[in-house]
Amino acid sequence: MTTHADVMARTLASHGVQYVFGLPGGEIVAFVDACRRAGLRFLLTGHESSAALMAQVIGQIRGVPGVCAATLGPGATNLVTGVANAFLDRSPLLAVTAQIPKALFNTMTHQRLGLDALFASITKETATVGEQDTDELTRDSLRLASSPRPGPVHLVLPSDVAIADCNTKPVVRQEPPDLANHGLHSTTEIKARIAASQRPLVLVGLGTPLSAAPAVWGLIDALKAPFMVTPKAKGIVPEDHPFFLGVATGMAIDQEMIATLRAADLVIGIGFDPVECDRTWFAELEIVAIDSVSMAEGAYHPMEAIGEISSIINQLATSVAEAKPWPEDLLQFRRRKVYRSPGPSGKNISPLGLIEGLRSVFPRNGMVSCDVGSHKLLMGQFWRSYEPGTFFMSNGLSGMGYGIAAAVAAQLEYPDRSVMAVVGDGGMLMMLHDLVLIRELRLPIIMVVLIDGSLSLIQIAQARRGFPSCGVNFHPPDFVSVANGFGLQGERARNISEAKVAVEKALNNRTALVLEVPVDVREYYDLV
User: Going by C-beta distance under 8 Å and a sequence separation of 6 or more, which residues neighbour residue 495?
Assistant: First the structure.
């Protein structure tokens, strides 16, 4: 007998899925076992949210949706934040949750939740297994998750359906449109706008596929115009490029970055998705957009060319009759705004100085993830990324706890590369359970924990609104001892030099490291 769980697992394997992340319960074990028999590796996480975060980063890297699984009830609800993160970070994900037996659904109320309704607003689609051909449903779900805009798809698997004989018949399903043959509209008008501009600026966003990097470089070279990136597109063009003017927006020195955008008379948005913006400046600027799907929403209605991004960019680049460099004095003025000097050395370490120190010893092609907090805004702006797909950050949802999970996924996909997670003490407390998996898999991840004993980003927001500090301070544990308790190496750095030495040692030895570094929160007040 071939069960629905068997069909799902085999279909996932045939589409290149290698891992399933999750925390099993009794109602999902049939699916977990089917995955095992299909050759998929089930990786146990300490919390369902970590499972969803790891899976979506795998999907982001590979282009094939990552897969996570959870049981019904609390397992499914614990999965919600991670799935929501995939939804707003545009990451391809397939989430499978168990459900009470279909035959008992109308009678059994224990752990019964309407999971389709629960996940409907944070997924591209939610469907129940057993109501149509299961192989086609699984294939369609993977395809939908990875098609523009990428995002999560949710499948509900009732426990009795999972072990039932899968004898449904295939149904005829409409194929999604082929982007390569999609009508490209407004390219003529966009070419005219570029030709008429005097100070164009290229803005590269998260919708830009890594494969489009050469085309992006070609357009920038043809225009001789400056460019900016959004945080999730960092590295698509090397950030030591002479035309690089910073990271837009929502990161450190945000006002300066918005001023740079306003200095342009035309913004050429490539894969630019407003989901990364915490302000609505984009609705006020002259923007032409190149993307695989329309991003127009609300008051934002740019002139768009929709289709295969590399092809559109190449068309635009070949049409550039003359370069469009900015006046040198304006370019130099805006370029200087990107750089800041670290704060003075004191009892605790300058966060910016630490970032610069870590960057100086970390490999150029190394992969770094960043958690959410004040340090995220500095990392997003000042960490220099040089290669596509080497920087990971939660930005659409901006959920704490992302940093360690993302690093695990990156190390799994690139076992020979150096991987580092930069997290705050608050975020580290949320995801300590991930250390179990890091030790079990012997992943040589370097985890730099910035210690300030507070949720400093919220504390700054309170201070700026005239509120006293409340509910944001705590006594962080001794993370060195915590790391040792998990069977990992833990160290404490008293200055930037010690931090660099510890990181270099871990890089050379290819060992996991939890590095505790006390930082001076005063610098955040000046930069975030």
Answer: 345, 349
- Nearest residue to 45 via CA among 73, 72, 79: 79
> The sheet that has 125-128: what strands, in order across it?
41-44, 19-23, 66-70, 93-99, 152-158, 125-128
Tell the residue number behind the tokens 């301070």, with chain if given.
473
Please give the pLDDT value at position 169.
56
- The pLDDT averaged over each successive group of 10 residues in the chain (528 residues) is 95 97 94 97 97 98 96 96 97 96 78 90 96 95 96 96 80 48 65 95 96 95 96 94 92 93 96 93 94 93 94 94 91 82 78 96 97 95 96 94 97 98 96 97 98 92 92 95 97 96 98 96 84
* Distance separating alpha carbons of residues 241 and 239, to the nearest angstrom: 5
Tally Cβ neighbours within 10 Å of residue 445.
25
Question: Are 157 and 99 contacting, i.e. CB atoms less than 8 angstroms apart?
Answer: yes
Q: Are 515 and 491 in contact (CB under 8 A)?
A: yes
**Which of these, 412, 411, 400, lies nearest to 445 by C-alpha position?**
411
User: Among candidates 500, 267, 250, 503, which has minimal Cα distance to 380?
Assistant: 250
pLDDT at position 168 is 59
Instruction: Say if residues 421 and 291 touch (Cβ distance below 8 Å).
Output: no
Identity of the amino acid at 284: E
pTM: 0.93
CB of 257 closer than 8 Å to CB of 228: yes
Domains of the chain, CATH where assigned = 4-162 (3.40.50.970), 180-336 (3.40.50.1220), 351-527 (3.40.50.970)
* Cα–Cα distance for residue pair 368/239, rounded to 1 Å: 15
Q: Any idea of the CA torsion for 99, 128, 21, 28, to the nearest 10 degrees?
A: 30
Amino acid at 26: G
CB neighbour burial string for 110-120, b if at least 16 within 10 angstroms, e if fewer: ebeeebbebbe
Cα–Cα nearest to 343, from 501, 171, 127, 522 = 522
How crowded is residue 179: how many other Cβ atoms within 10 Å of its Cβ? 15
Q: What's the pLDDT score for residue 101?
A: 87
The SS3 call for residue 322 is coil
Side chain identity, residue 91 = S
Side by side, the strands of the sheet bearing 287-291 are: 244-247, 227-229, 200-204, 266-270, 287-291, 303-306
The residues, any chain, with a CB within 8 Å of residue 429's CB and separated by 6 or more, are 476, 477
Residue of 123, 65, 72, 122 lying closest to 94 (CA atoms): 65
Predicted local confidence at residue 181, as pLDDT: 39
Rg over CA atoms, the chain? 24
